[in-house]
Design brief:
By secondary structure, the chain is an alpha/beta fold. The protein folds into 2 domains: 80 residues, no CATH class; 86 residues, P-loop containing nucleotide triphosphate hydrolases (Rossmann fold), CATH 3.40.50.300. It contains 8 helices and 4 strands.
């Protein structure tokens, strides 16, 4: 199956004068241009590819290829993906959801267990010029309304919240704005 034809949003870019095997994919280009990351680790690429394949609609003919026992085990966009990416500190776990968020049609919802982690991600994304919407306890009605508007206008591709905020009005808002992907961060302690 020709992935470049199937998912044009990830199609190879800047390839007119290069041999096809020297072309970069869209995620690598975005990593370099947006996040100033020169190299994606193989595990990062795997996590990102799984997210994008699960979230983008299937290409025409993909279902038939899968049913015919083609090389693909699953049809992209055919249902929810459940994966755990347990990577060391500093290995680029955040990039694993941030890069796909830029190419997916809907927003990406990220759930952090600690306000400090939320604030750190908001600061880092802001430093890169990437707006995000934050929903947390203690927000004023104006702050919440501004966050909602940034999601509804598609200005914010990343929604950051914590588990305590995922109830009532926010759940209704998320259901109406259909995130393409949900990601979460966990804190593990040794006991």
């Amino acid at each position: 199956m020709d992935h470049d034809a199937a998912w044009p949003v990830l199609a190879q870019t800047s390839c007119a004068s290069k041999a096809p095997d020297l072309c970069e994919d869209r995620l690598a280009t975005l990593a370099r241009e947006t996040f100033k990351v020169e190299y994606l680790f193989p595990l990062q690429r795997l996590v990102m590819a799984n997210i994008v394949d699960a979230c983008l609609p299937a290409a025409p003919g993909a279902q038939e290829i899968a049913e015919a026992g083609g090389p693909e085990d699953a049809v992209p966009g055919d249902g929810p993906l459940r994966q755990a990416a347990i990577l060391p500190t500093g290995f680029g776990k955040s990039l694993c959801f941030q890069l796909p968020a830029l190419v997916l049609p809907g927003p990406t919802l990220v759930i952090y267990p600690l306000l400090a982690l939320m604030e750190d991600q908001v600061r880092r994304l802001g430093d890169l010029g990437l707006p995000c919407a934050v929903f947390r306890g203690g927000q004023s009605p104006d702050e919440r309304k501004q966050a909602e508007k940034s999601v509804e206008s598609c200005k914010a591709k990343i929604i950051i919240t914590n588990p305590e905020s995922l109830r009532g009005r926010l759940l209704d808002f998320l259901a109406a704005n259909r995130p393409s992907h949900v990601s979460g961060s966990a804190i593990f302690s040794q006991g």
